[in-house]
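Need tokens for this chain, all 301 residues.
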Amino acid sequence: MGPTHAMFGAAAWLAAVGAAEAGVSAPGIGLLVGMPLPVVAMGTVVCAGAALLPDIDCPGSLSIKDGSTVVRAFGIVGEAVGKAMNAMALLVYNVTKSHRDTDRHSGHRLFTHTAVFAVALGLWTSFAASLPGTFDAGGKTYSTGTAMALLIMWSCLHLSLFGLFERWTKEQRKNLSLVGVMAVSAALTMLTASALPAEAARGKFWWLGLAVGGGSAVHCLGDAITRAGVPFVWPIPIRGRCWWEVQLPSQLAIRAGGRFECAVLLPALTALTLWLVVYTLPASKGIAVSVAGLIGIQVPS
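Here are the structure tokens for all 301 residues:
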């Protein structure tokens, strides 16, 4: 469900940053070494919001309770994009499926739940946030790449509110309307973005692609532990199927929104994320190391 996906995304970004600083060797992780804390903070909320993006293929209605979190977070625009993505995903499935793939009547958990989508989304994000040129608005000149980066940061931060603070956001949507919640997320985005270092303000937002693409991939990993699974490795054929679903054995798979997710998985991810926040802050890193040591886990200090 949305809150678990978002918390998983936040934890994944903080864990990647912590691993990079600890000298862990992994593809691409070295890019995260030496990131300023404001970038780490913005990357965390962007990754949390992006961890909801693959469900843009699940439209519902304009109800607060209907459709996926990402669709509901953007109202009529989200609903329109959701219907278009669902139709597009189903079209891609029908065009590329093999004779061993079953017939499908919905595009949910198809193209947007693949590694191809996650990588493409990450690359598009980095490209959009690095666009050259300027434009004029209201008598002022703005950088095109910076404007796109701010739009991406706002979209993902807005989504992260719906995921990480679901109950609060639903309550504020009733009190302030969806437009009011969007205004709150816009204000938080500008506040956080204003703390970014000068090089980021000059258009160096390449890290946004890592956060968005990584969040999308994390979403798929989360869905892979449920009973439905996801076609993450598409279009690589496995056993004659182009849309082979990566999933756990039925005995280990969990039910989305079930008791285990709500009572065990989400609280555990929340505790891990809070610990990672403490570990990331230089002033409190020692506390996090000590806490880990108490339960027998050794982490670099």
